[in-house]
Design brief:
Low-confidence stretches: none
Number of helices: 15
Radius of gyration: 20 Å
Shape: globular
Structural class: alpha/beta
Helix content: 40-55%
Order of helices and strands: HHEHHEHEHEHHEHEHHEHHEEEHH
Mean pLDDT: 92
Number of strands: 10
Bound molecules: iron/sulfur cluster
Distance between the termini: 5 Å
Strand order of the largest sheet: 7-6-5-4-3-2-1-8-9-10
């Protein structure tokens, strides 16, 4: 339930947030038992990601939604509207409070949702752990509120120094805005005598930054980040995508994997040069917690980039995520997987707990358990988490 390779990461969480880590460990134990014996039913989830909006002000090159190959860019999702209201969200959080999940707010860019601050207030009033994943462009005006409300963690995307980041993310002046936002958070933490939110920088490795990844260490130190995670690029070949569509269409008629289409491209990364850069980063002394995700061995890094169908041997070939994590989309649909439009139902129509172990959910988990994986799962980061 906590892969050996992720143990260092888990240990760090345990030291930074002990009660959160204990809760996660207990929930994983129950989930592991349910996976084996409960016939597709699952304990209420450990984590829920709420996608507040599909809207975004950036067009990051490698983004599966709005990037060069992204499905949303081609008209796959509305640019606005179709978002849950604060009344829907508050009702949902009130129910979730009873089973204590960690709540992640994401998008699109979540700060486009006009009620994100009252929502965080509601989540923290329920005593839930709350993380926001953001591109950082709209952060500064909210900094004082986020610190005051006790937001736990802030994950910010940064792909390099000023020129690298602005080029990849497609907006001049963006890096400077993110820096201003983080500096304001740090200032407010001092002013209000708080240690949270933790600042976690997230760097996506791509053909446009992998040859100068070390830049990120200086950026993270300058911003007094708590952690810096380098994410291996998600990409797949056309054959894997076609196999995914065919398999899912056959097993779950009416379900589409079209969102995976945004990840069909070649990485453009020389994995041997990448390994040199990774080594150089690991050898630099820094107080910041630096890690690579998934935490592949050197040979796995080479295979991952050279063979799009590769499944690393140090991870088990089965997915537990739909037993542990739920995704709530801007429409209110509860889904087990990010890039599949299969839904357990809608939180506007039924309580979340009824959907989580409803007929649709049990059916999905039974099929997945029997198959262990769908074709595209080998490129899903969730496979390497549990
Ligand atoms: S690995 Fe597969 S089943 Fe698991 S969350 Fe990802 S897409 Fe869904």
């Amino acid at each position: 339930m906590i892969p050996f390779r992720n143990f260092r990461r888990f240990l760090r969480k345990a030291l930074e947030q002990p009660s959160y880590a204990v809760r996660v460990a207990m929930k994983r134990l129950f989930t592991s038992m349910a996976y084996r014996c409960a016939g597709g039913r699952a304990p209420l989830p450990e984590a829920i990601t709420v996608f507040l909006t599909h809207r975004c002000n950036l067009r990051c090159k490698m983004c599966g939604q709005w990037g060069e190959h992204g499905v949303t860019r081609a008209g796959g999702a509305p640019q606005n509207g179709g978002e849950l209201t604060i009344a829907d969200l508050k009702r949902f959080i009130a129910e979730a409070g009873a089973f204590n999940p960690s709540i992640t707010l994401f998008g699109g860019e979540p700060f486009f949702h006009r009620d994100i601050i009252p929502l965080i207030e509601t989540i923290k009033a329920q005593g839930l752990h709350c993380l926001v994943i953001t591109n950082g462009s709209l952060l500064k005006p909210h900094a004082a509120s986020l610190v005051r409300l006790g937001l736990d963690e802030l994950n910010l995307s940064l792909d390099g120094n000023r020129d690298t980041h602005n080029e990849i993310r497609g907006m001049q002046g963006l890096f400077e805005r993110i820096v201003e936002g983080i500096e304001e958070i740090n200032h407010q933490k001092k002013l209000q005598g708080r240690t949270k939110p933790l600042i976690n920088l997230q760097c996506t490795i791509s053909k446009d930054n992998y040859a100068r990844l070390e830049e990120m260490l200086a950026v993270a130190e300058r911003l007094h980040a708590n952690s810096l995670t380098f994410h291996h690029l998600i990409f797949m070949d056309e054959a894997t995508y076609c196999s995914q569509e065919e398999t899912v269409g056959w097993l779950l008629p009416g379900t589409s994997s079209a969102n995976w289409k945004g990840f069909v491209f070649e990485s453009g990364i020389d994995p041997r040069l990448l390994l040199q850069k990774m080594d150089a980063i690991r050898q630099k002394a820094t107080k910041i917690f630096v890690n690579f995700y998934p935490n592949f061995s050197d040979t796995e890094v080479i295979d991952y980039y050279e063979n799009p169908r590769y499944l690393p041997k140090s991870y088990r070939p089965r997915c537990l995520s739909p037993w542990i994590t739920a995704y709530v989309f801007p429409t209110g649909d509860v889904r087990p997987c990010l890039n599949l439009d299969y839904s357990f139902g809608n939180i506007k129509d039924a309580p979340f707990s009824a959907l989580w172990n409803g007929e649709q959910a049990v059916r999905y988990r039974r099929i997945l358990k029997e198959r262990k994986l769908f074709p595209a799962c080998i490129r899903c980061t969730e496979l390497f988490r549990y």
